[in-house]
Amino acid sequence: MAGVFIETMNIDITPLDRWIVTRTASRFPGEPTTGITTQLEAYQLWMLKKTLTLAREKSPFYRNHLKGINLEDLRSVQDIRQLPFVFARDLADHGLQMLCVSQGEIARVTTLQTSGTTARPKRIFFTQHDMENTAEFFTRGMATLVKPGQRVMVLMPGPNFGSVGERVKTGLSQMGCSTLVNGFVDNPGSVVKKIAAFRADCIIGLPVQVLSLARSSRATAHGSSISTNRIKSVLLTGDYVPLSIIRAIKEIWHCPVFIHYGMTETGLGGGVECRAQRGCHLREADLFFEIIDENGYPLPLGQVGEVTVTTLTRTGMPLIRYRTGDRACFLEDLCPCGSRLKRLDRVRGRSVVRLGSQEIRLDEMDEAVFKLDNMVDFQVTLVEATVATAGIHLLNVEFWSIPDKVQGLERKIEQALYKIPAIRHLMDQGELTINSIFASNAKLFSRPIKRSIKQERIKKKINV
Ligand SMILES: [Zn+2]
């Protein structure tokens, strides 16, 4: 578990490594049992059993859900595979029954809309203790990208207790950083001015929103913009991160761009890249991660499957083998920083529409379209239309660019999309037509949600 420093790379080990070693040593009273490979795994097994005991004792949902599970049968943390999964719909249907404390002990409730218009929202409950753990993770994890005394602009919601902005600010204040929690970006031009006035060293936000700021700041030629080399680091979070966005931000601000992986269910924080930027080191003292295949079996390192998470220290509403819906893999090689903590590769985009033998993937379109200079955001709508008796698929692209830089982008977007093999194949076969590409009049970022392909179905006669 202790890191092996690789001199040739000259990269400090992630600060999470030492923190997790200290945490596991302080909480786990016993010596590693024979057959368990590391102190961390012994600790994780110990905490898993504590979580299972708590959940069965206090939560009506888990009492029933974990019926028949014998803790003696769990001899290594890998035996977690004997336990049933928890799905998003369980959170929506039985959220309150999953609580292990009285509602009076809940310090924060987050309501999340699930997919589907009629689906009930998920509600995730946290105690004060759970929220303190989150801030502590942010203190340790952020040390990889900011130094004490630096100024951090957070483009995530705040300031209510337990919001991501508030928890990041609390975590960073422990490091002696000044933090301004702005909320999501609604107008890139005005946020660029705020960043310049605040003299931010670091920016934390959604990938597309931070890209819009970088491209807007470059387009603003006067003193209210962000000067070159002003920004020392960027952390992208809240959605999957296209490589094209990382490259574009690096090119404009000349700074390292880090990825954070996490969601409300992981207690906001989940994992963060170190200076080597080779995947997110996971918060393994609080969370046990698995990657599973479509049949629910754990996959080895390097194979892509669904990210599944078990909370090890959560007291309000523990999650046991929670299926996140995210797709990613654990990285196989040792991180150049030397840490043995598990690393999660970049999460893949979830938005995929299958047409015949082909997949139309938003993440592929993101890589192609965000490469185009002056692009800020776009929304793809796939329309299944019935013309006379025949079915046809039409692709509509509404896009946002830097003001006054719209010229020629329609054609470039069309060319970029046609270069994607699946789209080219469908177009060449006459199964897909790019129907319209147009600059949007709508206000930017009015809905800062996870990106997805919109789908519509129409039956009337249309002009193609
Ligand atoms: Zn590392």
Automatic annotation (TrEMBL):
Name the InterPro entries for this protein: AMP-dep_synth/lig_dom, ANL_N_sf
| Pfam families referenced in this protein's UniProt entry, alphabetically | AMP-binding
Query: Which domain of life, per UniProt?
Result: Bacteria
Q: Which residues form the AMP-dependent synthetase/ligase domain?
A: 114-309
Name the NCBIfam families for this protein: DVU1553_fam_AMP (NF045666)
Q: What is this protein called?
A: Coenzyme F390 synthetase-like protein
Q: Give the organism, scientific name.
A: Desulforapulum autotrophicum (strain ATCC 43914 / DSM 3382 / VKM B-1955 / HRM2)
